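[Q] Does anyone have a clean structure-token version of this?
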Amino acid sequence: MVPDISTGGRTYGLLAYLYGPGRRDEHTDPHLVASWLPELAPDPGRDPDANLKQLTDRLDLPVLALPKERRPARHVWHCPVRTAPGDRHLTDAEWAQVARRIMHATGIAEEGDSQACRWIAVRHADDHVHLVATLVREDGRRPRRHQDGMRAQAECRRIEAEFGLQVLNPGDRTAAQRPTSAERSKAERTGRSEPSRETLRESVRQALAGAANDEEFFRRLTEAGLRVERRLAPSGDTLGYKVGLPGDRNRDGEPIWFSGSKLAPDLSFPKIRQRLAAGPLDDDPSGVDQDRPRPARTRRTAAPLVERAAATLTADDDEDAAAQLVGVGELLDALVQTSPGSTRGELNQAARAFERATRSHIRAERSDNRAIRSAARGILRAGDALGRDEDGGATAMLLSTLVLATVAAVHWHSARGHAQQAAAARQAAQHLRAAYRSSSASPLGAMRDQGRRLTPRTRRRHADAVRSALPGRADQILADPGWDAVAATLDEAERAGHEPAALLHGVIAHRELESADNVTDVLVWRLRRTANLPARARSAPHRPGAQTASIRHGAAERTDPATRAADGVNRRPRR
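[A] Here you go.
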């Protein structure tokens, strides 16, 4: 059950909408279910002798009784209350009870207060009602409605439990401001896929990802095509900023601006400057001595930093954990901007969801997340990655660790009672899993094919290494379809000079596997990263006895493009 409070200045205009047909004729049977005093509140929906003007005058009477100079400019309080999808439909009597409880909880019309504000509850759909009040009491005073939104939310949680409805997560006032109904309507009229506020929030967040200083941040905003205006001190220092979409204007033809704080609490300029002031970022965290690092290398470099962030979320330093969450958010924003189309949609949804998980009341002012922010910067500098070959494999490697990090974020937030943030991290993990499945299909498929071509003796030797390193999980790993990719990776590592059992012991000691969605996948990427192997399968030299295994799987190998690429078949000559 979701209350959404706003204020305005025209009682008649709001009532005309509530009792009207709606924007798409979606309003059916509008009528009152409750009011401050039923005998004084005419119902234009059910009484043929009543009209909107009469109802408006009754509601506004305490306002009009004041001298003009004392009348509040925004005297109309409006709160739609909607049940969650899947909830049963409440009766009119139940909605009346809900309305009275919320009006009491917010302090606008407390039970037993004969001088309280006038209010009504209008129902024109099965799943919600609209509460409308005028913010002047019968005695001419203003109501005490401090934190009325939080109090309405808290009362809705109690109502949900008592009425057997879905109990939603409580808020903590760290969420970004949602678009107003007017903003949503404007987006529909102008053909935009979302309100300007949401588009700008995402653009500002992406411009901030890996930015080294505020000048670079503002330059990125301009390059993204946004209107940008800074508020400057007499000294020339920036004090604040606001952004707008080109062509987005109000009814007077003036540009519509949003300050950073109106987009999200952590996008105000003081908060942005605080984040940028942590210290200089490495220009090239990949360690590649060239002007522009390769996308695959920057993704491989970022993976252990994400694992380190996930480990921080299981430790006791809440401030450091909060800082690492911010860094993971920036890394996701960098990936969205540089990923191929096959994964960009899911990554964008993951970044949007995880944005909520980066904000809580735990502050990270004195913590250092420069390493992971530098990784985000490196990914952006490297530019667009391909969805195949080494780029595709390195992306899958990084996404595998990001799934672990978001799952760790779910547990961290849940343990601290951050219900909204835990739900957001859980949603981000779902989108990341989908992106991972898309990006890992080809490289893991090639590794599995290569593992099946190994001789039985080689496979037994690597299986013995797994039993030695993971005695409790060896049977599960060896029975998993991903075992072939693990075997191929161990064989590549052995040919590169590593001892498979020792390598397995090392990667297992580095971090637990219990939180992994797929143990074999996690093992593959950790082994390849630790042994500095390519993120895609590397062909093995021909060995005696390999032909027998190859014959068993020959049909698949002849038709699988990923296998042909892994084996070096049909490659174009280098130019």
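[Q] Thanks! Anything notable?
[A] The chain has four domains: 2-163, 192-276, 295-436, 448-566.
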